[in-house]
Design a protein that fits this description.
Layout (H helix, E strand, L loop, with lengths): L9 H4 L5 E8 L5 H17 L3 E4 L6 H10 L1 E4 L11 E3 L7 H8 L4 E3 L3 H15 L3 E5 L5 H7 L7 E4 L2 H5 L9 E5 L5 H14 L13 H13 L5 E5 L5 H12 L4 E4 L15 E6 L5 H14 L1 E8 L16
Parallel strand pairs: 1-11, 1-12, 2-3, 2-4, 4-5, 6-7, 6-8, 9-10, 9-11
Helix pairs in contact: 5-6, 9-10
């Protein structure tokens, strides 16, 4: 693994005579689900007028949230903070069934911006319960997507599994009807290990026909795997509560390249560039391209930057908007 970066005189690291090779990962930044969720809030503001309430951050990115606030969106954590006569949008991460049920009880107007790939996991959970299977759900405790998915089924019929160590402590036997699902924004490698551990302990366990980790998460991790080995340091633009962004940091570090998570260009310490000849750059699925260019501009103030885009996959996925915003 590369040696940790030491804080040094910023002038040495920002010498314009020292070129900086910048490897920019592709794909990066917004995915189709994030594009759709943001457009839902913007369309709701156009159709219903401000304010439009949004339960939880629509996506995990401060820049995006602040931009929507400036247009008239009000972000809340719970539905009881929303006036009955105000429109409300549910975030891209999904919500437990109890949330729309409460909205309907109160005769509220709401728009569900849950990513269609998360909704697919919700439907899978319902089908597995209908078949009498207990669900082992691979995910991170407390993440909104995990709360939303576990809230699709009756309490006591789904168990959260976070680590391989958790598998060894599960109380089930090989006679139990078991199935598994996963959070969509996990590490591809970690999840593979967990699924293998589950299958080894419970050969009878049933999984989804296709993996639940979304295409965007997989593609962004694959892109980091291409740039990290050739980089001295990788910068990941994303929020500290963004699961998919944190996984990009982990992917780089597992390949032996130090990585730092930043939200904006002003968080970059010039001393990080000491001894760095090649810098990798990517962005989590909730980070707009504007923030990538902001980082490139900041780096160009310190060093002579040459850019190269490293492509891991092509993306052309588009998700339809809810009918109530297109009629």
């Amino acid at each position: 693994m590369n040696a940790p970066f030491q804080s040094t005189d910023a002038a040495a690291s920002s010498d314009p005579r020292l070129p900086l090779q910048l490897l920019i990962a592709a794909p990066r930044g917004f995915c189709a689900g994030v594009d759709r969720a943001i457009e839902i809030v913007e369309r709701a503001l156009e159709k219903y007028g401000a304010p439009v309430y949004v339960r939880h951050e629509i996506v995990h990115n401060r820049y995006v949230v602040e931009s929507l606030k400036a247009k008239g969106a009000i972000f809340v954590e719970e539905l009881d903070e929303v006036p009955t006569d105000a429109p409300c949008v549910f975030s891209a991460h999904g919500v437990p069934k109890s949330v729309p049920a409460e909205a309907e009880r109160r005769n509220m107007m709401y728009v569900d911006a849950t990513c269609p790939l998360v909704s697919k996991v919700h439907r899978q959970a319902e089908r597995q319960i209908e078949k009498g299977q207990h669900i082992l759900f691979i995910g991170h405790e407390g993440h909104p997507e995990v709360i939303g998915t576990m809230g699709q089924v009756p309490e006591g019929q789904i168990t959260l599994v976070e680590t391989v160590e958790d598998v060894a402590t599960l109380p089930f036997t090989r006679d139990d009807k078991l199935s598994f699902l996963t959070q969509t924004t996990l590490s591809v490698d970690d999840t593979r290990e967990l699924v293998e551990a589950l299958r080894e302990r419970y050969p009878q366990i049933v999984g989804p026909k296709a993996e639940d980790i979304c295409y965007a998460t997989s593609n962004r991790q694959a892109a980091v795997k291409k740039i990290a080995p050739a980089s001295d340091l990788v910068l990941v633009i994303g929020a500290p509560n963004s699961s998919n962004s944190l996984r990009l940091v982990e992917v780089s570090e597992r390949l032996g390249t130090d990585a730092r998570l930043i939200q904006r260009a002003d968080e970059i310490d010039p001393s990080w560039l000491e001894g760095v000849g090649t810098l990798g750059l990517t962005a989590g699925a909730s980070a707009p391209e504007k923030l990538v260019r902001e980082v490139v501009d900041r780096l160009s103030e310190w060093r002579a930057v040459s850019e190269e885009t490293i492509m891991a996959a092509e993306e052309n996925m588009i998700f339809k908007l809810p009918r109530q915003l297109t009629d």
